[in-house]
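Section 3.1: Structural characterization of target chains.
Under the original work plan, the team committed to producing a structural model for every single-chain target entering the pipeline before any wet-lab resources were allocated. The record below documents one such target. The sequence was received from the expression subgroup and is listed exactly as submitted; it comprises 137 residues.
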Amino acid sequence: MRRFSWLVCSVLVLCPLGASLAADNPEPYPACSQKPSEADRKAAQGAFAAGQGSFNEGDYKTATTYWRDAYRRDCTAHALLLNLARAYESNGEKKAAVLALKTYLDRNPDPGQRPQIERRIENLEAQIAAGGASRVR
């Protein structure tokens, strides 16, 4: 019984640490190697709408979950990466926001707002360097 209580205590202590480390090392976006089907596009639109509702309610973590799913289903909808970056930034996950913005620039090399996005990345990276990297809510 004593071993079991130590196991439970270690899990309770280490879970927040694991969540914090995950926020500091965001998962990269998979390569966009195929065109989405019509069913994928419709599913992505549904996930986008759900994410928009969550974002509007201030539930940024749920919004990022829906929007990552939408982008996974339709990786040609690069503007979703801008939404993801805003939600991550609003949730204090600056490294994840930078990753989304850099992925957007890589996959959409000639956006009209490139200079603004590059400045935004620079500002976020400066905040990360100053110690305001990420937080998990």
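The two ends are 33 Å apart (CA to CA).
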